[in-house]
Structures are given as structure tokens and as C-alpha cells.
Amino acid sequence: MSDRGVPGRRRRPSPDRTRSLEQLEGHAWGEPAPGATHLVRSVHALRRRPLNTLTADELRRLIGQDVGVPWLLPIALEVLRAEEEAPRPDAEERWPHGDERWTDDALLGAILRQGSGTWADAPESARELCAVLEALTEVPSTLSADIEHFTAALPPGVPAPRLLPATPPPGLADWLRTNGWTPGRDAGPWIQDLIDERVRDAARQGHPLTPSPAAVRFLRSFGLLELVHPKDPERRWTVDPTAGHEGDAAGIAALAADLGRGLFPVGGDTRKAGDPRAGSSIVMDDLGRCFSHHPSGNHHLGEDAYAALAQWLAGPPVP
Prior knowledge:
The protein is an alpha+beta fold. It has helices at 21-25, 38-46, 56-64, 69-85, 105-112, 116-121, 123-135, 144-153, 170-178, 188-204, 213-222, 249-259, 305-314; strands at residues 226-229, 232-238, 263-270, 280-285, 290-294, 297-302.
């Protein structure tokens, strides 16, 4: 059930959402044939509905059948962004059946399964979907094949999303759990206040800092935790963007200029008062790489968050 032959299939429209797909495409399908399946009857009916009345599940049904994709893709991406930005319930407040996720996996999967032609026609939507994926605090393993398909279908010039594995390596995961982390953890509503505070503080220092999706994802998953070093209990990775040494915005901005990438604080490497290594700021670039910043020097911690945490546990070369 595809509308690939319908006029307008290759357009990238900005639709009037009070109109239906039937009106926008200028092509009426008529009534479904006698004996048509429930899915066929449903899709026929949905094509006659105004776009602004379609639910996430109805968008999933249409996109999954390759119907009206150029018109529906911008709306579906808005739904995914809104769901990811909304507060997420704590583990004990999850839905009773335990099989629903905050981001609509079914809708996301339908979008990810689109072919290369869709993304060649809409590279800006491909970039937006990459950003949606990078903002997820947890990438469901059930979407792994769909993400691989999407990555392979990306047009030239659109980089693949940088995603962490669904779970940390076993040894690292055990240590994180002892420090209060759980899979799917989301400190979003609480950590956002600290992100906003850090942005304001950097602006006051005269060196604005912008949180990247990679940094926000890390902070939402690990934010507000005090990660205690198992071999040195007085040493902690405080996952708080306001941690680190005082007045560090200028140094972070200088490091960002050297790297040619945006940086944002994701914590502080803290020790007892008076320790010369106290107050190192841990920063993350827009690619997800982590660095330790201190007035006496900068050090690369890892190519992603898990590598950085493992390196920190092994004893990062702080000044």
C-alpha cells in the first residue's frame, strides 16, 4: 500500500495541517474494495482526515504503509521531539504493563525504515532524525536493525548519529548501579534546571556555552549522581554541569576553539579540599567525546561517555 506513484510523492511540502492527505495530494482513492482488510480500510479513512487530527499511532500506520510520507514526516518528527523533551516518569511510575516507552518506538521504527529516496529528498529531516536519536537517553535494542537501515540510507553529507550502546559494558554497568544508576534512568526535569543555570553562568562570564544533544543525553541519564571512585572514596565524578572549578568558562571556550567543536560541562572531578587536582571540569563535545579541563592542563578522557568513565576509573591523568 504505497503512494509512490502519486503526484507530489517527491515534494518536500510545508502542509496546511487543516487539510487531509487526499486534499493535499489531489488524489482520491475512493472506497476500499469489498472484503478489504482492517488495515486497508483504516488507511483509506485516515487519508481523508485533517493532518492535525492524526495521532502518533495513526501517523505510524500511514508512514509504515508508505502513504503520505513527505507530508507526514515533519509532523511525526515533531511528535518524537515533543515526547523526548517531556518529563519522563521514574521507574516506579512507569506504565503498568511495562512494555511502553516514553518515545513512541513504533512511530520511530516506521520512520527509520524509510528508504534512501526519502532521505535524499529530505536531508534536513534526516539530520533532524539523527538529532532525535542522539537525544535519546536509552536506545531500545528492538530498534537496532532499523537504526542500521536508516544509517545505511543516509544521503551524502548527512553524518550518521553517534549513539552509545544500549547498556554499558558489564563491569562498568555494575559500578554505575552501585552509584544509583539504572537503565532508562532520566533526570531530565531536574538536570534541565542545572543546565540552564550553567548556560546563564557562562554567559555572565562572557563565554557562552551551548549544550549539545550528546551532553544533554549524558546528563539526563547520569545527572545528579555522585560517582565514587572505588579505589579512592574521596574522589568523585559529580554529574552536574555546575560542578568543576570556578570561572572555567574561558578555559572551556579556549579548549573548544582548539578542538573546533562545541563543549559543554557534564560534571566535575572532585576531591577533598586543598587537593591540587580538585575542581577539574569534565566537558563533552558535540561528538560525545569527553575531556578533563583544569587551569593547569587539559586531557582527553575518552571517545564516548563509557570510554571516559572507564578511563576515569583507571585513573585519568588529571594535573
